[in-house]
Design goal:
Blueprint: E1 8-10, E2 13-15, E3 22-26, H1 34-46, E4 51-55, H2 59-70, E5 76-79, H3 84-92, E6 97-100, H4 102-105, H5 108-121, E7 125-130, H6 136-142, H7 147-163, E8 169-174, H8 178-191, E9 197-198, H9 206-222, E10 228-229, H10 237-250, E11 259-262, H11 273-283, E12 292-296, H12 302-308, E13 311-316, E14 319-324, E15 327-333, H13 337-353
Parallel strand pairs: 3-4, 3-10, 4-5, 5-6, 6-7, 7-8, 9-10, 11-12, 12-13
Antiparallel strand pairs: 1-2, 13-14, 14-15
Length: 354
């Protein structure tokens, strides 16, 4: 069961409480390239990304962010390090939320000025603590970068903000270590009831990063911990969003597309199953309902797995058999498999509406 946290609203989008797990990503374009950044935001939204974070490393980027905010309705998060004036500027020009590591801001008087701007503009904040930017004093105290160190840093800053009269807060305690990430969030969730932003920082390229993120985020979500997620990959951020959705679908938490079940292929496979799966996957783009679609390539697993799905196909040389909720409904020529299966999916929805 999902842990009950307070709710934070980001441009009307609820995070925490009984709200669904929200998916976010971050632009990889230069923020000063306004058109390229807006294009990437559009691409992310097409993949059902719900919040987009944008780095604002300097004042030129802040000016660009101001224009970007005017030209999109997507909830935008301003990511700011070190310069408190840029953080305040981002709040004032329309950021729907800002993300800072308060330890990077330095002087607490400067952090108080950020708090004042947040209050005045009624905007939320993510306190983002990660293993690469912990306070030196805490690292020395803990004998290195540990989960205890991450959690202490986060709770100290939360206490500071709350004492200053501000509690519209989301928290993250990311590490590049899967084990430290899981331990840190588990510890933090037992101490505070603020919404948690989950992720593995600097997770790496596509395959290693997907594995790390799936294990850490999946483990936490299965234990009811987490309210919003970002899968960090050295990849196109659109891929981050796709992986994030697959994590939620695998845990039966949210769906934005059908679940595809397909066999890994072996010497029994006598059709080009990989290409067939790609074609069907592409044809399913835009289908938002939680169907289970089976695509099988031999007589061993094919009929059984296909019959277990809402819709499925078992393919063999020259022909395919389509199943619907356990029953075979038609035999078709191999070259018509994709077309016929997609047609049956469309009919499936129409029948549900009757």
């Amino acid at each position: 069961m999902k842990r009950n946290t307070k709710v934070v609203s980001v441009r009307g989008l609820g995070i925490g409480g009984e709200n669904p797990i929200r998916i976010q990503s971050m632009t990889s374009t230069k923020t000063t390239d306004i058109d390229a950044t807006l294009k990437q935001i559009e691409e992310l939204v097409k993949e059902d990304c719900e919040l987009v974070r944008i780095a604002i490393p300097d004042f030129k980027s802040l000016e660009a962010f101001k224009e970007i905010r005017k030209r999109t309705t997507v909830p935008l998060i301003a990511d700011v390090h070190f310069n408190y004036k840029i953080a305040i500027g981002a709040i004032e020009v329309g950021a729907d939320k800002i993300r800072i590591n308060p330890g990077n801001i330095g002087d607490k008087a400067k952090v108080k000025e950020i708090i004042s701007a947040l209050k005045q503009n009624k905007k939320p904040l993510r306190i983002g603590v990660n293993s690469g930017s912990l306070e030196e004093e805490l690292i020395e105290k803990c004998g290195g970068v540990t989960s205890e160190c991450l959690v202490e840093s986060a709770t100290r800053w939360v206490d500071f903000f709350v004492k200053e009269g501000f509690d519209d807060i989301i928290i993250s305690v990311k590490s590049s270590s899967v084990l430290d990430t899981v331990k840190s969030y588990t510890m933090l969730s037992s101490k505070l009831d603020f919404p948690l932003h989950l992720g593995v920082t600097e997770a790496g390229p596509l395959i290693p990063g997907t594995v790390k993120s799936s294990i850490a985020i999946g483990n936490l979500l299965m234990n009811g911990i987490g309210d919003t997620i970002r899968v960090s990959l050295t990849e196109d951020p659109v891929v981050e969003v796709r992986v994030a959705w697959e994590i939620l679908k695998a845990l039966d938490l949210r769906y934005n597309a059908p679940v595809i079940v397909s066999c890994p292929t072996c010497a029994r496979t006598r059709v080009d199953l990989m290409n067939l799966v790609r074609e069907i996957e592409y044809g399913l783009r835009g289908v938002k309902k939680p169907l289970k679609i089976a695509i099988m390539g031999c007589e061993v697993n094919g009929p059984g797995e296909a019959r277990d799905a809402d819709l499925g196909v078992a393919a063999e040389p020259g022909r395919g058999v389509i199943f619907k909720r356990g029953k075979m409904i038609k035999r078709i020529p191999q070259e018509n498999i994709v077309k016929e299966l997609l047609m049956e999916i469309e009919n499936f929805f129409e029948e549900d509406l009757r």
